[in-house]
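Example 288, ligand fe (ii) ion.
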Amino acid sequence: MNQATTLPANSAPDILQEAYARDGYLMLEGFFTPGECARIKTRMHELIDGYDPEEQRTVFTSDGQGHAADEYFRTSGDKIRFFLEKDALDPDGNLTRPKHDCINKVGHALHDLDEEFSAFSRKPPLAVLARTLGLADPLLLQSMYIFKPPHIGGEVHCHQDSTFIYTEPESCIGFWVALEDATQANGCLWATPGAHTEPLRQRFRYRDGTLGLEELDATPLGKANTCLEAKQGTLIALHGRLPHQSGPNTSAKSRQAYALHVIDGACAYPEDNWLQRDPSMPLRGFTN
Ligand code: FE2
């Protein structure tokens, strides 16, 4: 098994650019402080306190099928919505445990609708990093709080983020933050370094009232070969074409993470992308 390369958070721009161009990812330890991680975890706990599962019980699956026809998912780009783990429901659709332990993720506009998440997402060094990695006009497109709860946290199949976050030309960069230590036991990320130079395999589009995956290249993605175990506060920057995945959480510890996806405003954003915003809520950058 290959182990990922980590760099100090204050590495020089040319070191970061070289590693990102070569590997398609960066792992920067200590990018966020334990205090920043704790604050955002507390804030999410409060948001869940206000969530009523009786009103909406939507399971999230990463295979592009279960949620594909689901309006709750498709119209979540400018909202804060809650998606449950499939193993958190009994056959009658009732939660099998307290609601805080049942959630797969919350998305997709935390960074614009909540002050704490906005501040976390717009930490100035992150803006600097986005520009260092080549985004001329970085726009914060979507945010997800990912729970990977103990015992039931589901696997995420190997994918490329540009499949779901597509611009012309492609510009997506994912910023993934370990809010808790991520290990193999609780479902850390895996990636295939260097494979970001391969073609984009699929594109997730909304056409004729249906969400679906369009095949662009039939070459299988295979299985990611490098383990990205990450200490709390580590930032992982992922190139939109880099194949990555995460395993199920079979442990008793959760693996909470925050993922922010950024695109370049200089690129075109197609009208048939799944994530569309109400015109009253345009995309914002790090400082506007
Ligand atoms: Fe991803």
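Summary: The chain is about 20% helix and 25% strand.
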